[in-house]
Write a structure and sequence with these properties.
The protein is mostly helical. It is built from 23 helices and 14 strands. Bound molecules: glutamic acid (GLU).
């Protein structure tokens, strides 16, 4: 087709598109940002929720934009209606918000580069396609589904490359008259790229994460606009990321294979290509095999999971940061007073292969997070959690505020603060001795020891020796004395030297006290716990232990 024919064809197909490219180029000028500022974007389909793998991407987007004084925007990619659900956008917002990921521009916040919903941008896409038709880089293709299916079958049998290219692209050189009559006859069509590429040539991409990659040049007549006039992902990506001035396209590495097409689109459209960073999927180890984290099989793939089980969002963010940059965790452990925002994230510390999503690791990081919170902070946050998820315990927490804060504050000072809580829901279990009514209810039922403990020995100790107004060291001194007086060695070492001579050692005595006072063989500092309880409550507990043994 000659140029004038192509102009006629473009008008015939898009009679209602009145603006030209220049109109949009002016409407969306370069962003006025400092040198080196990154413009990132998150482009989910409106499926109603964000998968953890995607959340990781959004998290990175937001961080990079922020630390470079750039912009991060949310663009709803609803070109595939099958993936849209009612209120799907709201769900995305809620999930992002739960992680404090607030885009600078979005369908909700607005912005100068909107609309931020692809289905509202059809006129823009069509304007650019119209121009590509005029340039000879796009054409209407009338091929029927069956035709395409049979080509595919043939290609599969012949083991040739799949797709519409070369002689398979039967409509790429139709003459104007034929196109006009087929359109007039009401035949349906898509608009395809008239690819100028040759697969014998090589194109290169230097990916921010994966480094240099080489591909055969794209030579497929890929669909740009579907029958209903809406764009494919590829075309929308090129147009939107150009007009919205994205500097870094951070996305899942399932898109790597589309890179040659995207490079070609940016070239023929005359756009500057953004940087790409392709992220490996978030995976999970299961019975020795590694697979993608799945929203069907893995509850932790959903953002809502974390709130429900009581993992603090801050802790999950710390974990995401750990996955994101391999040097983050060490930095965080060494910098007790720092926040995620204080760390500089870089692409070169991002994993090239799959990223294992490891809940145990997340729990460990969360324990570190909790260890840095004061007793009062843990109390307040647990109160909030239980308000929603455990109202009965919430009431008990409120009724026992003072004690609870004291218990939660034990072993918080010093270089190695206590690391026993990973989730708000752990508080009830870990501090089961803290609230009398709960303690009575459980009544030593969870005691993880089969041993017998000498009630009289402990009772006598409490009544004759225990002084709660001394230091921890002084206290321990009295325990040792008492141990010796009653036939126990003052240290495990002494005991080992001559086991026959003793009933046990001071550790056994402490264990007996601990078991009767807390119902557990392990607990934070015993003397601190006893101080909060006071003698009366300690005696009550010894009595109920005695009863429970009968
Ligand atoms: N809508 C695309 C997806 O959900 C976005 C990919 C991209 O960020 O470019 O996979």
């Amino acid at each position: 087709m000659e140029k004038n024919e192509r102009i006629e064809l473009a008008e015939l197909i898009f009679p209602n598109i009145k603006h030209d490219r220049e109109y949009y180029e002016k409407m969306y000028p370069e962003r006025n940002l400092p040198e080196g500022a990154m413009v990132t974007r998150f482009g989910p389909s409106p499926t109603g929720f964000v998968h953890m793998g995607s959340l990781l991407v959004a998290f990175i987007d937001a961080i990079y934009a922020k630390q470079s004084q750039g912009k991060f925007f949310l663009r709803i990619e609803d070109t595939d209606q099958k993936r849209s659900v009612e209120n799907g956008i709201e769900g995305i917002f809620n999930d992002l918000k739960a992680f404090d990921i607030i885009p600078d521009e979005s369908p909700l916040a607005g912005g100068e580069y909107g609309p931020y919903i692809q289905s509202e941008r059809n006129e823009i896409y069509q304007t650019y396609v119209k121009d590509l038709i005029v340039q000879g880089y796009a054409y209407p293709c009338f091929m029927k589904e069956e035709e395409i299916a049979s080509i595919r079958e043939e290609q599969e049998i012949n083991k040739t490359k799949l797709g519409i290219y070369g002689h398979y692209a039967v409509d790429r050189d139709l003459d104007l008259e034929e196109v006009k009559s087929r359109i007039a006859a009401g035949e349906e069509y898509v608009i395809r790229l008239k690819s100028p590429g040759n697969a014998n040539n090589t194109v290169e991409l230097v990916d921010c994460i994966k480094g240099k990659m080489k591909f055969p040049e794209h030579d497929m007549d890929t669909v740009l606009l579907k029958k209903d006039g809406t764009p494919t992902y590829h075309f929308a990506h090129a147009i939107d990321d150009h007009l919205m001035h994205t500097t870094h396209v951070i996305r899942g590495d399932e898109w790597v294979s589309s890179v040659p097409l995207h490079i070609q689109l940016f070239q023929i459209l005359g756009f500057k290509q953004p940087e790409y960073a392709h992220i490996a999927p978030v995976t999970k180890k299961e019975e020795g095999t590694i697979r993608k984290l799945s929203k069907r099989k893995d509850p932790e793939a959903k953002v809502s999971y974390y709130e429900e089980v009581g993992l603090p969002i801050e802790a999950v963010k710390l974990y995401l940061a750990t996955i994101l940059n391999s040097n983050f965790e060490e930095w965080y452990l060494n910098n007790t007073d720092k926040k995620i925002e204080d760390f500089t994230f870089t692409f070169d510390k991002m994993a090239i292969g799959g990223t294992l999503f490891d809940l145990d690791k997340l729990n460990n990081i969360s324990k570190t997070y909790f260890s840095r919170k004061s007793g009062e902070e843990v109390y307040e946050e647990t109160l909030k959690y239980t308000e929603k998820f455990d109202q009965e315990y919430n009431k008990l927490l409120k009724d026992n505020k003072e004690d609870m804060i004291k218990f939660l504050s034990i072993e918080k000072d010093g270089d190695r603060p206590r690391k026993d809580i990973a989730k708000y829901s752990d508080v009830k279990e870990e501090f089961s001795y803290a609230i009398d009514s709960l303690f009575e209810k459980e009544n030593f039922s969870k005691l993880d020891s089969e041993k017998t403990y000498d009630v009289e020995l402990v009772r006598n100790y409490v009544n004759t020796k225990l002084n709660l107004d001394v230091t921890n060291d002084e206290w321990f001194q009295t325990v040792k004395e008492y141990a010796l007086e009653n036939g126990y060695a003052a240290s495990p070492k002494d005991y080992k030297k001559d086991p026959e001579a003793f009933k046990g050692h001071v550790g056994d005595l402490c264990e007996a006290i601990r078991v009767m006072v807390t119902g557990r063989t392990k607990s934070p500092d015993l003397f601190s716990i006893m101080k909060v309880l006071g003698k009366d409550r300690i005696n009550e507990r010894i009595n109920s232990f005695e009863k429970s043994q009968k």
